[in-house]
Amino acid sequence: MRRGLTAVIVILFITIIMLLVMDVRKQLERLAYATSDNVQWFLGQAETEALALELAAHEALHNEAPHTGALQTRFDVYYSRIDTLRNSPTFEPLHAHPRVLENLDHIDQFLTKWVAIIDAKDNSFAQSLPEFARDASAAQDATRNVALAGIAIFAEIRTGQRNSISQTLTRIAILTIALVTVLIIVVMAMFRLAQIREQDAQTNLEISERMEAIIATAQDAVVVTDRKGRVVEYNGAAEDMFGYPREVALGANIVDLIIPEEFRALHKEGLAQYHRAGLSRLQEDSTGRLVGPGIVQLEAQNQEGRVFPVDLTLARTDSRDGEIFVSFIRDISTRVQAEEAMRDARDRAIAGEKQKADLLAVMSHEMRTPLNGLLGTLDLFEPDHLPKEDRHYLSVMRKSGQILLGHVNDVLDISRLDAGKMSMQNQSFDLIELLQDILDGQRARADARGNDLILSPMQPELHDVFSDPDRLRQVLLNLVGNAIKFTENGQVIVEAECHHGLGEVEIRVIDTGLGISQADLDRVFGDFVTIDSSYARSNTGTGLGLGISQRLVTALGGKMGAESELGDGSVFWLRLPMARPAIGDMEAPALPIESTGKDILPEAPAPMSVLLVEDNPTNRMVARQLLERDGHSVTEAVDGAEGVAKARDAEFDAILMDISMPGMDGITATGHIRQSDSETPIIATTAHALPTEAARFIGAGMNAVLVKPLTKATLRQAMIDAVTAKLIIVPGMPLSDDVINQDLLDELLEELPRERALDLLEKFSAEMSAFLTLSTQELPTDFDTLGKEAHRMAGSAGVFGANRLNLLLRDIQTAAQESHAELPPLLAQLPPVWSATYREFQLLGLVTDTAEAKP
Amino acid sequence: MIRQPHYLFGLLSVFWVVISTTILVADTLPAPSGQVVLTVSGEIQLTNVGDTAEFDLDMLRDLERTELETTTIWTEGLQHFAGIKLGTLLKHLGVEDGIINASALNEYFIDIPFEDADTGAALIAYERNGAPMSVRDKGPLWVIFPYDQSAHYRSEVYFARSIWQMDRIEIER
């Protein structure tokens, strides 16, 4: 703006000066090439010639023989002069002057008069010479007047011209001074600007030198590339890291330089994509760093071809030469190696731990079986027929055996708890009653040691709590037992109180016994810990009791601890959540799966007519068998549509409805049935036990949810719940990753005639083989069929307790229906899992190793 | 003077021109038969009256005629002049160098450098607009320069050399 104004002013000045110069030049030219003669001379000459004429006239007058020839020439010369004076444009300025005009008129009259006379060519001119002389005199006066006036006039004109030039020159001078002033100002401004520029340049230079120093001395490699990936900056650390000298690296493409060969194509494609999409793909934040990557771990390659891991931070910025990318690269080989070593060590440790736990579990399991046999056989002795000594030996053997069995069970508990294989129930029970039971059971032992067993008064809320009563009983028995053991002639008090409603219930077992030292208190919950050798005599425990207790309490969502003063007794406390669970988490009253013993199996309800809607034939067969055993009559339907039709045709006491079926699924079928029948209890049977799912089934009009695989106990419980119209969710067998769930398989074998079960298993094996063929085809394209088959096979696998196979097939089903990309790895697992399962069946003698059935 | 047919007159003049430009003149100049309008004296090769060469208008007209159209500062409008070049006259008289001193009836005189004759710029006009010029009309002889041709001739120097009513020329070495 300012610059533009200055330019306009300067141009204006120059233009005006040019115009003035041209004007001066024109005026000077007019002076140089005079368009007029020397007018003063001309006028003076006119007067001279007039005088010459007058003189000639007087001469002729006084001459005896007048010679008019010379006079006539004078006259003609004068005439010519006046004629020019009158007609020449040069003398036009004179004509405007009245005095000049007056005199010129007079001269004209003189000339006109005498021309006629002279030209008459007779004697008249010679005779009128005296008159001519007089007239010539007058003409001379007039001429003089004209000349004098003319000289004045032309002097004035000349003066005017000179003044004009002078004025113009003055203007030029003024303008030139002004122009020079402006130019001086501009030059000064330029100079100032140049100074500022130079200062800026100096500052920039310093900054860039500093930056260069920073980059050069940086520990990280700094590689700057342009838009096309050409290296434009490369520091010393980069030289060390990649091996290429700076001269070689500069100008080279970064991809060819440091990217390992196998990634080059990928990298170039990425760069090309970036150029196509511009910044839209790689959004950046305000700092210019590409947000997506942040610090990324990549692999780089040095000159010798060694590939090593690096941390890369990439920043994009705009420079004068366009977009540039600044990469900060750090060689993290050492760190990665250390990490790998640590990971390996950790993995090895975990594997070792697992092996140890597995060994413990197996050993305990394997020991328990023969021990049971031993103890059972001991019972076969009839002590009455034995001598007294032998009876004593027998008693010792039995006691020792029972202690050993107790230890083995402890170890088994520990390993199961550590492996997370022990499931906890959450059901309603009466805590006060439980505590009373425990104390009643221990009272004899307490009396034997002279101890009082006291149950403090309880809050009535504790009559109805939620937790796992069996686990709790185990823990409290251990604590009360310990308290009795370490107290003599004292008191053992059990207290319980609740905080936050039932959100936290604290149970304390207090004794007045020996107490535990502070040092021992810290390790009292450790495994295989016995505190004092003196107690070892009275305590036959393995030292696992408190360890197990603490694990159980933790598994129940609580905490456990102890306080003690040596000599003053101990307090062992546990705090557990015992509130009623939220609706979605409703699991109670759970049946303790671990103990599917006949003693806790619910009574079978009265015989009912049951509609069984189930698409999987194996599942259908098992469920029918289980139901018929309990005396129910069973009608089968193989899918939702048939189920709806049969429910319409006949009345049932209960309906078992599978959820996922081909065609009409269980939820839709329930909807149809509920349109005309709101009474009949409908029990959903599903493999999906998620609470949200269960809520959806209930919302669809179902009364209960029974989680597969079905067992006699869970099915019976579900049937009871159905007729008592409770809204309930019955948990199924928790699906562990075991190849085979032995309990479930045992139950199946127990419920079904053996040959029937073996038939089913053989059929399942054949179907599995067929499914393997289908699923291991190069690229399964019929995902629908694959999904359906996987669903069917999963159902069958569940019935046989083939847990791992069941889980895998369900994953395959989900993947086939939703995300095909996950299929290949899952399908790859199928053959080994099936092999493992089949091997288990073989070991159990359930399948014969025929070529046909072999996976 | 014997009146000769016009074509003979033309032929003769051509002849004269050829002679005068090829061979140095060695002829005698005929004596003027009419009124003498120009007397050339001084360093000349050819004379007819005493040491001088006298010309009447016809004699001048016999020499190579040159015409010139130009304006002047003393007249109004474009003027058509006819006459002989000063250079032509001087060559005719065998003059090759010197200072030309021209004088007029009114005793005005001016030096004309030989250069002006040599370049052919100076014209001794004897006709203006197709008519001979009287003394009243700045005649009979008027030295004219091609003022319109160049600003060079529109200067006071040349205006001063534009002598009218010229009747004498003296050549000085």
Give the tags.
heterodimer, A: 855 residues, alpha/beta, Beta-Lactamase, Helix Hairpins, 6-stranded parallel sheet, 5-stranded antiparallel sheet, 28 helices, rod-shaped, B: 173 residues, alpha+beta, Sulfite Oxidase, Chain A, domain 2, 5-stranded mixed sheet, 10 strands, disordered N terminus
Short description:
The complex is a heterodimer of chains A (855) and B (173). Chain A is of the alpha/beta class and 855 residues long.
**Oligomeric state of the chains in view:** heterodimer
Report on the biggest sheet of chain B.
Answer: 5 strands, mixed
What is the count of structural domains of chain B? 1
In CATH, the topology of chain B is named Sulfite Oxidase, Chain A, domain 2
> What strand order characterises the main sheet of chain B?
2-1-10-5-6
- Order of strands across the main sheet of chain A: 14-13-15-16-17-18
The end-to-end span of chain B amounts to 34 Å
Give the overall average pLDDT of chain A: 79
Poorly predicted tracts of residues of chain A? 283-292, 532-540, 584-599, 851-855
Which bin fits the share of residues in helices of chain A? 55-70%
What percent of the residues of chain B sit in helical stretches (DSSP H or I)?
10-25%
Characterize the overall form of chain B: globular
Strand content of chain B: 25-35%
According to CATH, the homologous superfamily of chain B is: Oxidoreductase, molybdopterin-binding domain
